[in-house]
């Protein structure tokens, strides 16, 4: 059974998937969404769930540094509840504080151009969220 990791933003959702043993996470793609238009990319998520035989989903929960939940955290909670309703899979909310910052730092240190960074940062952050979750289980 594979686990899907998602980094949900207001314009994109970074997607990562685990290997079949649940040891490693790999960034898969970035899905364009539009919260204002109620376009959340669930159709594409469904295709990925089917293709990779996903049995569990991890959604990054952006908490404030003091541990409280702000508007982005509430948006992630909504997204997670919609995933549960639509696909009937267990969905885990995982503290993602600073994963996007860490992904950005790694890409900067690797001297990746700004244009290329913007294309991969969300799926890389999703991979970091998922890897943190997988490491906590193993």
TrEMBL record:
Residues 1-103 form the YqgF/RNase H-like domain. GO terms for biological process: rRNA 5'-end processing. It is an enzyme of class 3 (hydrolase). One of its GO terms (molecular function) is hydrolase activity, acting on ester bonds. Its EC number is 3.1.-.-. GO terms for cellular component: cytosol. It is found in: Cytoplasm. Transmembrane segments: none annotated. It comes from the Bacteria. Keywords: Cytoplasm, Hydrolase, Nuclease, Ribosome biogenesis. PANTHER family: POLYNUCLEOTIDYL TRANSFERASE, RIBONUCLEASE H-LIKE SUPERFAMILY PROTEIN. This is Putative pre-16S rRNA nuclease. It comes from Bacillus canaveralius.
